[in-house]
């Protein structure tokens, strides 16, 4: 969730005080402001423009927020927008600059981690398993002194590891849906 800067919180508190917002409701107003700023960041709206308020209100309605909650959220955002205009932070240099694209984790783009596309076994080396001795030298529960871990190889096929995951889930009698979910998350990361 988006964290509102401390300076903005202090200024927003002063604006709420001047607007006569009851002390018991201020926490909710701050919550709606945080939700609004998070919404603007997520959906690439400018938080300092009034045109961002209607889509935010539609989102709240789709989330089944009551009329009173939406009214409180609308008033909170309007106080914030007034604060921004009053302090001159909403003034722009005259040119509309698009918001930068959201940063995504580099892992999600790695071809070796499963992008949802089938692996071409001819172009990628097969995953190699290396044996690693347990540090304590004690045997594992199953009596083996070694455990296997995949060798670090870029672009390695994860077929064996995913099959082992599926078999392990079947062995524990988990649902097929669980197997699908675990497989998808493993490919994603």
- Coarse morphology: elongated
Cα end-to-end separation: 21 Å
Across the major sheet, the strand order is 1-2
Number of helices: 6
Write down the secondary-structure element order: HHHHEEHH
How many strands in all?
2
Mean pLDDT over the full residue set: 74
Helix content: 40-55%
SS-derived structural category: mainly alpha
Q: What's the Cα radius of gyration?
A: 26 Å
Beta-strand proportion: 5-15%
Low-confidence stretches: 90-97, 102-135, 143-150
Main beta sheet: 2 strands, antiparallel
Topology:
Elements: H1 6-19, H2 23-43, H3 53-62, H4 67-87, E1 129-133, E2 146-150, H5 159-171, H6 176-188
Antiparallel strand pairs: 1-2
Helix pairs in contact: 1-2, 1-4, 2-4, 3-4, 5-6
């Amino acid at each position: 969730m988006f964290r509102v800067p401390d300076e903005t919180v202090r200024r927003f508190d002063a604006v709420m005080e001047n607007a006569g917002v009851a002390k018991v409701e201020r926490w909710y107003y701050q919550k709606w402001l945080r939700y609004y700023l998070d919404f603007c960041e997520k959906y690439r709206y400018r938080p300092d423009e009034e045109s961002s308020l209607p889509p935010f209100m539609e989102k709240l309605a789709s989330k089944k927020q009551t009329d009173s909650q939406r009214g409180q959220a609308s008033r909170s955002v309007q106080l914030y927008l007034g604060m921004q205009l009053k302090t001159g932070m909403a003034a722009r240099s005259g040119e509309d600059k698009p918001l930068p694209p959201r940063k995504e984790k580099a892992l999600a783009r790695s071809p070796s981690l499963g992008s949802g596309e089938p692996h071409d076994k001819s172009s990628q080396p097969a995953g190699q398993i290396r044996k690693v001795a347990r540090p304590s030298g004690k045997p594992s529960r199953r009596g083996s002194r070694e455990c296997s871990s995949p060798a670090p190889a870029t672009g390695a096929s994860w077929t064996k590891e995913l099959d082992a995951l599926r078999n392990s889930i079947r062995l524990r009698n988990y649902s097929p849906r669980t197997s699908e979910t675990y497989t998808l998350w493993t490919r994603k990361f």
